[in-house]
Amino acid sequence: MGLKNWPWMKLYFKIKPLLKSAETEKEMATMKEEFARLKEALEKSEARRKELEEKMVSLLQEKNDLQLQVQAEQDNLADAEERCDQLIKNKIQLEAKVKEMTERLEDEEEMNAELTAKKRKLEDECSELKRDIDDLELTLAKVEKEKHATENKVKNLTEEMAGLDEIIAKLTKEKKALQEAHQQALDDLQAEEDKVNTLTKAKVKLEQHVDDLEGSLEQEKKVRMDLERAKRKLEGDLKLTQESIMDLENDKQQLDERLKKKDFELNALNARIEDEQALASQLQKKLKELQARIEELEEELEAERTARAKVEKLRSDLTRELEEISERLEEAGGATSVQIEMNKKREAEFQKMRRDLEEATLQHEATAAALRKKHADSVAELGEQIDNLQRVKQKLEKEKSEFKLELDDVTSNMEQIIKAKANLEKMCRTLEDQMNEHRSKAEETQRSVNDLTSQRAKLQTENGELSRQLDEKEALISQLTRGKLTYTQQLEDLKRQLEEEVKAKNALAHALQSARHDCDLLREQYEEETEAKAELQRVLSKANSEVAQWRTKYETDAIQRTEELEEAKKKLAQRLQDAEEAVEAVNAKCSSLEKTKHRLQNEIEDLMVDVERSNAAAAALDKKQRNFDKILAEWKQKYEESQSELESSQKEARSLSTELFKLKNAYEESLEHLETFKRENKNLQEEISDLTEQLGSSGKTIHELEKVRKQLEAEKLELQSALEEAEASLEHEEGKILRAQLEFNQIKAEIERKLAEKDEEMEQAKRNHLRVVDSLQTSLDAETRSRNEALRVKKKMEGDLNEMEIQLSHANRMAAEAQKQVKSLQSLLKDTQIQLDDSIRANDDLKENIAIVERRNNLLQAELEELRAVVEQTERSRKLAEQELIETSERVQLLHSQNTSLINQKKKMDADLSQLQTEVEEAVQECRNAEEKAKKAITDAAMMAEELKKEQDTSAHLERMKKNMEQTIKDLQHRLDEAEQIALKGGKKQLQKLEARVRELENELEAEQKRNAESVKGMRKSERRIKELTYQTEEDRKNLLRLQDLVDKLQLKVKAYKRQAEEAEEQANTNLSKFRKVQHELDEAEERADIAESQVNKLRAKSRDIGTKKGLNEE
Known about the structure:
Blueprint: H1 2-5, H2 7-19, H3 24-182, H4 185-331, H5 336-509, H6 513-539, H7 544-697, H8 702-801, H9 803-964, H10 969-1114
Helix pairs in contact: 3-4, 3-6, 3-7, 3-10, 4-5, 4-6, 4-7, 5-7, 5-8, 5-9, 6-7, 6-8, 6-9, 7-8, 7-10, 8-9, 9-10
């Protein structure tokens, strides 16, 4: 272009035709040749243009396809945004659930505080039970002391009875001596038989008193045995309560440990969630930056495309202009000047076009360099991002393994919870059966309580009658005290008379020694017989046959003795004839004494009648008292049996309550596990949804998110395995519990068996003791017989040898003994007065005690009525509890059926999840293949860019060569044509290669899009299934919450029943303590009454002895 515009060349062109007009034909030939060449070049350019147009069409198609892909990606982005919105909503819901769970945690902490309070209460109850045990031990010690005191009293009474027997024997001897001196032997024998009968009566009374004492001792033994049993029961209760406290403490420690673990896991999960949120925010930022860079690159591509379009338009314009020039050359074939001008214009235009091309190439090179820099920067940034994503991937894989473990734990826990639920249902059924049994027992106890109340009313009426009889007795005792005063005056008179008679007796002693000797012999024999008879009656009071034998023996002995007495009577008749003269002098005195004697005897008989009446009344009162005591003992036994049944039922109720509490704790733990599993499932679902959003937002992170999803699913499987392990541990613990129950039942059976064996041993010991007693009785009988025979022989020999010596010594002894007896009688009178005063005081104390007992009785009646009201209330509440238990059992059955259906659904969902996992794994593999293909495409694109760079370098080199070789147009045109041909050939090959690669990439993209669509469909299906599962889990949670509310209500009612039962136990304990106090006071009153009776008996015996002595003195 520069040569054409050069002025010398213009001059050359103007002068040349003038100089060389002859060479026009040669120039025309050359021009034709050039025209032919230009035609060929035009044809080549047209062919090239057609090829380029075809390429343009293919590129437009590619552009449309890319636009469609961009629209599909925009749709995916919209779907991802919708998912993000859904995830945000789910996040809000989860936050609300987290708030609910925090509230739940606070409620559980309150429950823990309540449990600690209950623990303290149980410890207080244990301390109270220990105090009660100490009090019982003190009462046992007191009872043993009282028993020893009663035994000592019995020993003292026996010693006093022996002393009284000796005194009675001495008095009877004196009475016999005085009566035999003045009356006949038969009368004396009849009088003695009457006395024997009275003694037998007194003996029977004493034996009855001994039997009563033995019965009281047996009752005390029974009371002691009952107290020991109660002590053992209380010790067993203590052990049970201690074991329950230890179990509660262990449960509390386990709960604390679990709470700590859960808190630690929650903190870890929160930290993980925060890290994941930070990573997600970073990834979102990076995605936004990458999207901005992609948009910039797309804008640059569009700018390059517009530049290419402009260049192509310029090329097309140039071709058109060349065609026009060729046409013009053809039209102006002859006009060289015009052609030269046109050529100049064309050259000028061609030079302008070349300049434009150079400028466009320079701009294109600058844009290409900028794009290369941006591409290199983006590649470096993408490499950094890939490194970061790989790090994140490693972290997610680690978290995935952790989540797998947690999922296994959760699944094992779920299975254990299901098994525990089945076991709980079984336990509930057994508890219902036990509740029915306890109801029947409670009804029986209520009936027994009603019977006790009716019998108590009867006892109260009898108590009133006894109080009246006591008043009558007190009136009799006052009369007896008055009589006592009169007797004391009479005794003083009798003492004076005795002193006078003693003086007379000394004068008559020598005359009556022989008669006294005979009488002494007879009396000794009679005393021996009476002693043997008394011993036999004491030992064999129950054997009537032996009594009959002794009577026959007594009759035979009496016949023999009558013969001996007749002989003695004959001797006495001879002696009496000698002594009648001396007796006549004494008869005057005797007559006066007899008068006084008859008068005193009449008074004594009146007093004896009064005494017998009082004795009869006392005996009747004793019988009534004994019957009352027997009835009281029976009622005590019934009350103790009912109390033992109550205690056993209370123990069973406590054990059941402890079992219910344990079951409740296990159930709450299972609920907590379920809630934790739900939280973890929700967290996992949130993470899955986040991962799906990330998948939708960027195609590059799909592979990583699917890996995370696989990790989460593996974690879910691990949690399921952990759940199964937890369920196995629950089953193991339940087996331990069942083993413990079996061992407890075995121990209980062994204890019962041992108790039965001990009872049998006691019965055998009793039988052996009775046998030993029988053998001792037989040996005693044999010894008494042999002793009596030896004594008879001995006394006969001594009577033959020492008759006179015995008579003298006997008279002296009688005088000394009479003086001693007078002194002893005086001391006994003083003692009797003291004892009467004591008995009066004791009667006053008894009256006061009876009034106190009546007051306590009234209080006990009021408390019984209150207990009846409480029992009625407890029955009503029990019925309500039974109805609620029935309702809860029905609900539990419904929930069990729902749970089974949910388990089946869970199994189906697990199968679906396994299928989805396989599908996801296939999709992940396809994504990996697609990523590998994308990497290959990226490498191919890099190669293409390098080739483009090489082509641009070659084109720049060619343009430089063109600039250097501007001397001739032909050389330039030839070189340009050659360069264009070379470029066209290389460009065609490269374009063909690029088109083939683009087609392969398009096919791969279509396949990947199809796979992506299938994976999206599968993800949507899985999301739908997950939503359905979440709905089902929410419904299950609601049902579980309802059940928990019901259980809480039932627990509150059970607590109320426990409180009522504890109050009833406290009232029963207070009533028991009051009853025991009253019983203790009654026992003391009985002991005092027994003492008073013994004192009365002593007074009777003394009065009889005094009456006999007076009669003898008067005679």
